[in-house]
Design brief:
Layout (H helix, E strand, L loop, with lengths): L2 H7 L4 E4 L5 E3 H17 L7 E5 L4 H13 L2 E4 L6 H10 L2 E7 L3 H11 L6 E4 L6 E2 H5 L14 E2 L13 E2 L7 H8 L1 H5 L9 E4 L6 H12 L3 E4 L5 H11 L3 E4 L1 H8 L3 H5 L8 E4 L6 H11 L3 E7 L2 E6 L1 H6 L6 E2 L3 E6 L12 E7 L6 E2 L3 H6 L1 E2 L2 E2 L3 E5 L5 E6 L4 E3 L2 E3 L1 H8 L5 E11 L3 E10 L7 H10 L12 E4 L13 H9 L7
Parallel strand pairs: 1-11, 3-4, 3-5, 4-8, 5-6, 6-7, 10-11, 10-12, 12-13, 13-14, 27-28
Antiparallel strand pairs: 1-2, 9-19, 14-15, 15-16, 17-18, 18-22, 20-21, 22-23, 24-25, 26-27
Helix pairs in contact: 1-2, 2-3, 4-5, 11-13
Length: about 525
């Protein structure tokens, strides 16, 4: 049963709890979404058109999302950490016929819309923004009832753009009813065993523009869960909300785990987390020590998966991981996962290669307006995002690293993620990035950049202490040749490390590809 049916059957059910504690009933959220659908149709939008949104975590983003999903539109959420040129590129590239922005992001949104050449009549604001039509005016006079001629829309998220411009991952519209499409869209959470209906509560911990938030947050909403929204990440606040709202499921990333584990033991013991049944994580490799500590603290509710904006993937249950520490799981029932060598031939078990996947019988997405990139990531009807890993004898996948992050030193392949997983366990390390830098003799050498925990003094003594901690745990050829320190590593709000930003200064005077 989809959110539309649930909202009509029980309009008083609390669908959303905003970060300030405001509770939004399902009927109210549904009525607003219906009004937006009718208002935009009156403005000329038709199935297949694109809309963009620059909105914080809240009911506003969800009502725009629901409107798109029942009107056959492509919705592109925009990262509010972008610069004006980055946001303008997305608005223009997704061919937005309507742009929703919140007054919190007025300066960024209006400048980006101007640069993208978006007409004033296509801009809609939550709050007062000169030059925009207020969403309240867009909705005014429009019916709150279910509109006619509904057809499923979808989201078109953009890749992170670690190399070159981000690209929209565009899938053909299904032609299904919104309800049937929502049932299919909520299948992934159910693969973890997530159940439908109340009293389930899903905690949204990351910005709503991320693919995983759409999949798991949107899926939870359609499953009849209340969404409790965080406005920004705070480790202790997350624990507070789990206890306060009796949260049953959430999606996090390994950086969130590290932050929570860094809280004092007496603080962590203070919270009742027993309601949590499905604490699902992905987005980056999770160090074995971090995952083990989370399982010891939260119990056997920590699930992992491997996927991408383009699709996926694998699932590791807590039991799977405890039996095979480090695995990201085996293929979904509707997915295929293989590992190949550089010639496209399957690798034997235990041998690393490029990971290829598909969902269903064939890969159906394309990178918008980029057939060359679309073709380059294909192997038959499978695709890759450039990750390296290996399968064991039983078909369980283990990640090594991104192909672009591989360090080749003296002809040997070195995986930074393996080194990061060891360094992060040092009690004085808050965060770490490892990458290759130029070396006249070896081609590349291993560099680490460390963010110390508050109170730890960066310098040669701490560097020596970190290196000493690797003795007996990591082959010396993998040890960093040098360690730099920084106040904060560049991560996006999903936890993805922006390693290119760190690596670039070291390669500026070299011809090697960054």
């Amino acid at each position: 049963m989809s959110f539309w049916n649930r909202g009509e059957d029980d309009p008083t059910w609390i669908a959303v709890i905003e970060a300030d504690g405001t509770q939004v009933p399902a009927g109210e959220l549904l009525g607003r979404a219906n009004q937006i659908t009718s208002g935009l149709r009156a403005a000329g939008l038709r199935p297949g058109d694109g809309i963009a949104a620059l909105l914080p975590n809240g009911a506003a983003a969800l009502e725009v999302y629901l409107a798109a999903l029942q009107a056959g539109w492509y919705l592109t959420p925009i990262n509010w950490h972008f610069t004006v040129p980055e946001a303008a590129y997305i608005i223009a590239d997704c061919a937005a016929k309507a742009f929703f922005l919140h007054e919190r992001f007025a300066q960024l949104g209006m400048a980006a819309a101007d640069q993208a050449g978006l007409a004033a009549g296509r801009r809609f604001s939550y709050g007062t923004i000169p030059g925009c039509t207020a969403v309240t005016d867009l909705r005014s006079g429009q019916p709150t009832d279910r509109p006619a001629d509904r057809t499923a829309g979808t989201t078109m998220h953009y890749t992170s753009g670690t190399t070159g411009r981000p690209k929209g991952v565009r899938r053909p519209l299904s032609g299904l009813s919104p309800e049937d499409a929502a049932d299919l869209g909520s299948a992934l959470p159910q693969m973890f065993g997530v159940t439908t209906g109340q009293p389930n509560v899903h905690l949204v911990t990351s910005p709503i523009y991320h693919t995983a938030v759409t999949v798991f947050g949107g899926g939870a909403l359609h499953l009849g869960h209340t969404l409790a929204l965080m406005d920004s990440w705070d480790a202790q606040q997350a624990l507070t909300l789990v206890e306060r709202y009796r949260v049953t499921n959430s999606h996090m990333v390994p950086t969130h785990f590290k932050r929570m584990l860094s809280l004092p033991a007496e603080t962590r013991r203070r919270y009742d987390l027993s309601s949590m049944q499905w604490l699902i994580h992905a987005a980056a490799p999770c160090p074995v020590g971090i995952k083990r500590a989370m399982l010891e603290w939260w119990g056997p509710c920590v699930y992992e998966y491997y996927a991408a904006t383009e699709g996926g993937g694998t699932i590791a249950t807590p039991q799977d991981w405890l039996e095979r520490p480090g695995t990201v799981g085996s293929a979904w029932p509707v997915s295929t996962v293989i590992v190949t060598d550089d010639d496209g031939a399957p690798c034997p078990p235990g041998i690393p290669g490029t990971i290829y996947m598909r969902m269903g019988e064939a890969t159906t997405f394309e990178y918008k307006d980029d057939p060359a990139k679309t073709a380059a990531n294909r192997l038959g009807d499978l695709f890759t995002v450039g990750d390296i890993g290996y399968l064991d004898e039983d078909g369980f996948l283990f990640l090594c690293d991104r192909k672009a992050d591989l360090i080749i030193s003296g002809g040997a392949n070195i995986y930074p993620a393996e080194i990061e997983a060891e360094i992060i366990m040092h009690p004085k390390v808050e965060d770490v990035a490892v990458f290759g830098i130029p070396d006249a003799d070896w081609g590349e050498q291993v560099k680490a950049v460390v963010q110390p925990v508050p109170g730890a003094e960066p310098g040669d003594d701490l560097a020596a202490e970190i290196l000493a901690s690797l003795d007996g745990r990591l082959a010396r050829m993998k040890w960093p040749k040098s360690i730099d320190f920084t106040g904060a590593l560049p991560r996006d709000p999903s936890g993805k490390l922006l390693k290119r930003n760190l690596r670039q200064p070291y390669w500026e005077d070299h011809s090697s590809v960054i």
